[in-house]
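thread: overnight batch results

M.L. [08:02]
morning all. the overnight job finished for the chain we discussed friday. pasting input first so we're all looking at the same thing
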Amino acid sequence: MFDKFNEECGVFGVYGHPDASNLTYLGLYSLQHRGQESAGIVSSDGKKLYCQKEMGLVADIFTEDRIKKLPGHAAIGHNRYSTTGDSISINIQPILVNFALGGLAVAHNGNLVNAGLLKAELEAYGSIFQSTMDSEVVIHLIAQSRLGTLHERIVDALQHLQGSYSLLLLSEEELVGIRDPHGFRPLVLGRAGEAYVLASETCALDLIEATYIREVEPGEMVIISSKGISSSFPFKKAEPSHCIFEFIYFARPDSWVFGQNVYTTRKEFGRQLARETGVTADVVIPVPDSGVPAALGYAEEAGIPFDLGIIRNHYVGRTFIEPRQSIRHFGVKIKLNPVKDALKGKRVVVVDDSIVRGTTSKKIIKMIRNAGAAEVHMRISSPPTTHPCYYGIDTPTRQELIASSHSIEEIRRYITADTLGYISLEGVRKVVDRPMNYCVACFCGTYPVPFPGESMQQLGLFEKD
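M.L. [08:03]
and the structure it wrote out:
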């Protein structure tokens, strides 16, 4: 219905709190923007793991009765948007299994680019997969490891992975948080009283009044148990490759990720966009909601009034019944509606965070023109998206990305804007700290982690030493 990249997933975990499951529910509620297909919680009382999960939204799934079925002082939770695997109940996380060392639950945010090869080799040696998720590979690798302790097995398993992962693992006795060596996806550490908390974003800490401690570092493994908290870096060091789209679109504006406030960063993207693509206009409006901070920054830098020229309906469900008598552009109209008095007769700058296929932008511009705008100038607070993401974002194929095969002028004509301007990649890098620490493959096609080709040798998981 809406031409945007889709969110990845959100993870949340807590250890050492009598209301661990309730805190996890609240944490997932804060992270709902990262995935709306399904949600799940696994808790531990020190002796046994308990699980509740279902398709749908957090608030609809976790009733008071369900929370009561999740006793214990530790819990992990997961909101899912499927980047790998189907949107079906068997793919709901956390994944919960029993194996030689006891119970183990895993919640994963990211995408494993070599999951297919790993799965094929594991199946050849007898593993039986219950889901279509790449995340299940992690469980099988841990179970198949020949090493002794759970920690050793986790490290052994993760050394085979290529791609992105922020992982939470829960056993009966401890909570483990791990971030891949490139640090693609965010993961933060906090404290709520005597309890420790791990979460995808700091907004989840805010709701439960937890104190932010720091980011989990790329390649770091944090272990939390009754003995306290410990940290190690058991994986080979890699160049940081944080996902730039966390700032552009995915993270909540009130969060801090990768050491920066998201709202402030998006607003500065808008300022830089105005410096690079300024145009004479009467009003600046955002495409709500993700375009609001950049539009504010653009308006302030350009000295043009800001207004809400489009109103978003926040109560649109995942599905709706279209009228029998076809209404043109129904999918966009049910979600967005123009404010005619703010647009009539005006030269309008409309700011959005990205253009994917261009279909929604075209409909929005037509909507603004129909409301009486004299001119419509489209401004985008990210560079042209020319390549798909393979590290945990659900993106179209390259053929579907309009910027992969069309010039900016061709895109402008397609979406019918009077002018079209994108922020440059250099402009984006001016805004973020440590600019070379970000993955920008979606803008340039330079991928920090290579993809296994068909000619690759088997990975040798079961070769003898």
